[in-house]
Write a structure and sequence with these properties.
Shape: globular
Largest sheet: 6 strands, antiparallel
Number of strands: 14
Strand content: 25-35%
Number of helices: 6
Low-confidence stretches: 70-79, 177-252
């Protein structure tokens, strides 16, 4: 079966249900809102007090099925419980075609009204579209988009579009196998892989142009950081960043390549110049990271950037033991680093054994080269910090 034939079979699933009559595992509630806001560092007063609403971006949190899936820890209910046979068949068809890996690429949400504690959500999901075969740095595969309508008491409160890439990992087969549909049971959940949280390589000039297009001419330096001056033609870049240790370099080719899109292209252009750029709202000067289309404080869509000084502290961290992934050698530490400018970033903590990482540990930014196409910001424990 060639790609066109496979695509025709995949397209036949468009418009068919992916989840039917799903219900949220928990009513909208204040403790989950509080934990979310603490994790995000969001102190907006709209999310506290007797008239509190839930942050709009929690929309998906109320309909997620949890790690256990059907019959797993936490009891029944949730996304997996209501997964439709058509969606299982679609995923199995892709698995049978060699697209056994999956990565979440993006989501879009629309809000009809705020959710409040006590609201009980219900939802239905349809398979909205399946792309033709695409070749990405992760491998070749197909983008699958689902659309979920979330309701309370029968009234629409929001729409959640979620897109995944089902692909054949580069270096495995190199090309999806045009196979037959597998049995429509036992398909693995379409959950994000480590690639979803891994920075991407910078793409130089084209993405830099994207960043400049959003920068208002009137925006000037203010706030906690210095403005990010444009690098002049011919200006040397700082000293060459360190390369990965030899033992990790062998796996570097398998390291997932994150997606550069119109919202984060300017950040990766900065990484390409060994600069860590933070967005700053042109209206209220609030700094934000990761990059977003608009300010989460005032809603302005205008912004410029400031360059991080590079110093920070470990705000929190986890030690990864599982799941194993060929590009990484567990156990290793992943830190939530709070920069001196006040924003937080998830990244690797290097230069210290994983079991020596501690909250409050001072770290310093550096750029690590994994191969010719992949440079990532990481944070090295400062001397004497362990």
């Amino acid at each position: 079966m060639d790609d066109d034939h496979l695509h025709l079979r995949l397209k036949a699933y468009e418009g068919r249900p992916a989840a039917v009559a799903g219900v949220g595992r928990d009513p909208v509630n204040a403790p989950m809102i509080r934990h979310w806001c603490e994790a995000m560092g969001d102190a907006n007063p709209a999310y506290t007090g007797p008239d509190a609403i839930a942050p709009p971006t929690m929309l998906q949190a109320w309909i997620m099925g949890g790690l256990g899936g059907p019959g797993g820890p936490g009891g029944p209910g949730g996304t997996h419980e209501g997964r439709a046979r058509a969606y299982e068949e679609l995923l199995s068809l892709l698995d049978g075609a060699g697209c056994t890996a999956v990565v979440a690429t993006d989501c879009e949400q629309e809000y009809a009204r705020p959710l409040r504690p006590g609201d009980e959500v219900a939802f239905d999901t349809v398979i909205e579209s399946v792309s033709s075969r695409k070749t990405t740095r992760l491998g070749a595969g197909y983008f699958v988009t689902t659309r979920t309508e979330v309701r309370v008491g029968g009234a629409l409160v929001g729409t959640h579009r979620f897109r995944i890439l089902k692909y054949a990992p580069a270096g495995s087969s190199g090309r999806p196998q045009a196979g037959t549909a597998a049995a429509a049971t036992g398909t693995a959940a379409a959950a994000p892989t480590p690639a979803a949280a891994t920075p991407a390589p910078a793409a130089a000039a084209p993405v830099a142009a994207v960043a400049e297009a959003h920068r208002p001419e009137s925006a000037r330096s203010m706030g906690p950081g210095e403005p990010a001056p444009p690098r002049q033609p011919g200006e040397p870049v700082e000293s060459a960043p360190p390369r990965q240790p030899v033992e990790a370099a062998g796996a570097a080719g398998l390291r997932p390549r994150p997606v550069v899109n119109r919202d984060n292209a300017g950040f990766w252009a900065g990484v390409g110049e060994r600069r860590f750029l933070i967005q700053r709202c042109a209206a209220c000067a609030t700094l934000r990271f990761p990059w977003l289309p608009g300010c989460n404080a005032c809603g302005s869509a205008e912004w410029d950037t400031v360059e991080a000084g590079g110093r920070g502290t470990v705000f929190s961290y986890v030690v990864m033991h599982h799941p194993p992934f060929p590009a990484f050698s567990p156990p290793y530490a992943v830190g939530l680093v709070e920069l001196a400018e006040g924003v937080r970033v998830i990244s690797g903590v290097v230069g210290v054994p994983y079991d020596k990482v501690r909250i409050g540990m001072p770290v310093e930014l550096e750029f690590q080269v994994f191969d010719d196409g992949l440079t990532l910001p990481v944070f090295r424990a400062r001397e004497g910090a362990a």
